[in-house]
Automatic annotation (TrEMBL):
<dbReference type="Pfam" id="PF04357">
    <property type="entry name" value="TamB"/>
</dbReference>
<keyword id="KW-1133">Transmembrane helix</keyword>
<feature type="domain" description="Translocation and assembly module TamB C-terminal">
    <location>
        <begin position="939"/>
        <end position="1259"/>
    </location>
</feature>
<feature type="transmembrane region" description="Helical">
    <location>
        <begin position="27"/>
        <end position="46"/>
    </location>
</feature>
<protein>
    <submittedName>
        <fullName>Translocation/assembly module TamB</fullName>
    </submittedName>
</protein>
<dbReference type="InterPro" id="IPR007452">
    <property type="entry name" value="TamB_C"/>
</dbReference>
<feature type="region of interest" description="Disordered">
    <location>
        <begin position="1"/>
        <end position="21"/>
    </location>
</feature>
<keyword id="KW-0472">Membrane</keyword>
<feature type="compositionally biased region" description="Pro residues">
    <location>
        <begin position="9"/>
        <end position="20"/>
    </location>
</feature>
<keyword id="KW-0812">Transmembrane</keyword>
Amino acid sequence: MSEHHDLPPETPQAPPAAPPRPRRWRLAFSCLALTLALLLAGLGWISASPAGFAWALGKLDWLSGQRLSVGATQGTLWRGFALRDIRLRGGADDVDIESLRLDWQPAALSRGELRISRLDVGHVRVLSRPAPEQKSAPLAAPRTLALPLRLKVDQLNLASLTLEPAHFSLYRLQAAYDYDGARHRLQLQRLDSPWGEARAGLTLSAASPFALSGQLSAKGELEQVPVKARLDLSGDLLKPAFSGEMDGKGVSVDIAGALRPFDANPFNRLVRLDARVGNINPQAILPDWPKARLSFAVFAEPDAGQRVKGGLTLVNTEPGALSAQRLPLSLLAGEFRADEQALELFNSHAELGGGKLGLVGEVKPDRMKLALDLSQLSLRQLHASAPDDVISGRLTAEGAFAAPRFAAQLKGKWLQASALAELSGGQQPALLLKKLELGAGSGAASVNGKLGLSGKRLFELNGKLVHADPARLRDGLPSGDLNATLKMAGQLAEPMEVGAKLQLAPSRLSGAPLSGNASVLLGEARLKQLLLDLKLADNRLQASGSYGVPGDKLKLAVNAPNLSLLGPGFAGVVQGQGELAGVPKIPVLSAKLQAQRLRLPGGVALQSMQFAGNIKADQASPFQLSLDVAALQAGGVSAEQLRARASGTRARHSLQLDGRFQLEQQNYALQLAAAGGLSLDNRWQGSLQKLELAGKPGLSLQAPADLTLGADGQARLGAARLALLGGSLNLAELTRQANGALSGGGSARGLRLSELGPWLKLPLEQNLQFDADWSLSPAGIGKLALWRSGGDVQLPLDKGRHVALGLKTARAELDLDSRQLAFNVSVDSRFAQAQGQGSLPWNGGRIDGHTPLSGNLRASLPSLAALAELSGPGLELGGQLAANLDLGGPLQMPQAQGQIRGDKLKLADRRTGVSLSDGSLLARVDGRQLTLQQLRFVSGKGEVNASGSLDFSDAQPDARVKVSLQKFSVFDRPNRRLVVSGQSELAFVGGRLSLSGRIRADQGRVGLPKLGAPDLGADVVVVGRPAAEPSAFATMPLTVALDLDLGERFRFSGQGLDVELSGLVHVSANPGEAPAARGQVKVDKGRYKAYGQDLDITFGAITFNGPLDNPLLNVQAKRRLSPVGAGVEVTGSVAAPKVRLITDDPMADKDKLAWLVLGRAASGDRDNNDLAASAGMMLAGSINDHIGLFDDLGVSSRKEKTLSNGTVSPAEQVVTVGRQLTRELYLGYEYGISSADQAVKLAYQLSKGWSVVLRAGTAMSAESRYTLRFD
């Protein structure tokens, strides 16, 4: 049996599945990978290659819609880059950046940090344009100040920032910035401004409420007065607090306050403000402001919620008239309250021009009500040319802002004024002058009118003058009685048209009758009608006609035989007539004018003038102009004669100008000749045929040159050769565009600077010659090279001596690229070399004292030995100096920053024995401050080191220098040597010099010369000899506090002394007082040579207890090995010394003298002879003391002796010459006066009473002598 299985119904077979398409996926993936690879390669090419980086930045102009462009690029994104000529054009600001250089560390990105090693920005110029006011939402507080990466800028430098059109500049910014993820830290290391320099530090938290702390310090000058300022910030960004102060000589500022800058209500943003300012001159801050001496106080604080109240008090201690560039306001005080509804003013008053003002009222959002009361206000104190009157009255302004009303009622002694005006709103707003009445004495003027403020801006004005006297209004105007009516009407919108009619009623001026009328109608670039007929006595001025379009004709006539009637500044006679036709571009003129003895206001005068002109419209018509002027005075120019001629036709004519004149007391003669013609477009084209200017300096055109002049201001001078300043000037071309831009090129050779002597006074003698080449394109790109081609500079020395500077090269180069002016200067001489380069922003040629400077200066003195010639004989110099300084700041007061180095420095003075060698110098210049980091010299076995600072911010520089001496050899000569150690400080502050410290002599040997020429006393006057100028140190205010320690090895010799000294003396001095000293110097041992004898100093002390030049003396000196201890004692003071003879035992003075001089007592009949011999020995010894050749020189007595051989040697007088070789050994020579005996004597002192004497000569002898003394 078979089984049956039901099968499912047969279903349609599904189509087989599509096979996988790996090729398409691979193709898409390959395209994606290729695209990504190309993108990465492109990014790599852009960021890692100089060419790609430059290409990408070059597309910024197109990508930004012409808003951002970069002129030149160097480097890559990853390795650092430099950009030049960066321009950013915004809606309200244009920013030009001269250069930008960035060095950074890309590897720091892997640590989550953006690290910029250095960011240097050149000159930055920001030009702000007025922008329409737009309502903006209130400033909202930020939620966080966190950055996605840590950011650190190690060094940020900005050359300058200039804000236009204010023309305000900041210079040389140096800063560093660090964001560590929690706090922002900004360190402003330096920022220079026109008033000084500033430094600041700021720390700001990145999390709310953004804790804030910082301090700004600044120092500078206001009116040459040094000032220092400080500003402290605290609190947080949501409620910052500030306090600061500024101090100077008589200048002070104190400010404190707190803010809520993000409060929705602007009147709640101020928490507190309290400011006090003393003795500030606003002109010192902004030169265009008037000069004053202001002290003011301002306070403001919240009042009852959303309202602020405050007050102001201002005092000006140096008021003055505006005409003297001063502020006439002397006092201003007032209080206010402000909220969203109104601003209220109360208790407000001022003192102005000797009078008083009071202001009251309130200002609301839709209307105002203000009143100003004037009392006894002097107009002359406001301005020197104002009428001399004192006025009082009231001015008011009230009503809605859309239609306010203004009124004034003023009255003085003889001046009165009243006015009423209002502004009407609606669809046709207009200013209505309902009344303006002015009175001066019996005269009066009244005016009323209307001015439309929309549409055609139609206006009309009616005025009347009755019995007006000009002399009452201003000095220098003529007296008169003027009566007239005036009517004006027209429209100010395009096309503008103004009509006016003036009718003079019977009037008088300067006592003469005045009458006439005038009517004028001015249209768009055309005088449509002019009718004028004015008569003042015999003076008459007439005009009639029109001018501006073809067919118009204007006739003029003047006949003024007496111009003095016009006022005190007028005189002379003027007569003439003329006719003007054609159009302004091609005028037709026929005129004659002459003047005699003419004098005009402003110092213009001439003896005679004649003018005649005849110009036709036809190019072939005659063309004639002539002008002759004699004895012209105008400003600083005095012309004896001027003569101008033009003749020919309009198309072809010639021009001549010649004259003789005096300028700045220099006589000149001018001759000029040109030929050419006027084209139909009013362009003159021809040639300059002659140009001669005789004088110093003078010039001469060597050959004719093409010349073109346009009516729009364009001009072109073709190739020209001129003789100028003793050399030649070759112009390839010189062109002036209509906008004033210059272009062209040329060269100069052999220009002598001495030719500018009358105009350029130099303090040095010189005979320099210069050459130059230059070129300038119309686009503002050019070069100038100026170099010395010959001559030298003579440096002045003392006694009329000069030495040549020895210039080798001197060259200056300027490069202009329409954005900046770059310069390069180099000088090389036999003494020094210097090279500088830098740049200035061009700013369209607007370069002045505030223009920021950026540059570098390198200077070197390769051998100081060359400077010894400048210092005179006896001085030896050596070593080299070098300086590398960066320049910045404003051009009128550049600041330098850099180092000065010196190596192998040497200074030796053969006259004093001072010798300094192996010297080194390291100093830093920072603005107007020089920091002496190290100055070291070696002398002998020791050295000296100095460090300190010099501040040149004030008119008198301040200096503080510390000097350290270590076994330093001050001088080293055979008779003079001094080695010292110690510390001292030398300061020069406020014009006062101070010296303090302690100096110890490690070793000293000071010797004075034996013989010197005598000096005249201070009270001796030599007729015909100029008095010696006092030393600069003698008149310098000096303060001294110095301790001088002589040490243990100080030896002094001179004037008979040979001693070793020790002791400590404190020397002090104050300005205007004699130096004083405190202390004592002791004589440890030594000798004193007097009376021809060597005296041993047994005790010596010099005590200082007052004036330095008059110490107290206490010195004892005895004859060596004297049996009686004969010697001298000196006591008292240097000014009044007391000297007496001493011995161990009492005896008469004549015996003391004999024992001192002869070495024995005076006895018997020989007393007189002994005393005579003593006197002779004293005289001879005194002479020998100064000469110093021998210790023994004089005449002595020799006793009768019996020699060992029985020969008797008689007594006689003997001449003795000898020298003490040691304390015991003596060598001498004896020569008998009455005999021919002579001998060499050798004596040795065994003890105080026993000696041995040997003689060798005519007779030989030996003796042993023992002396026993008894009375």
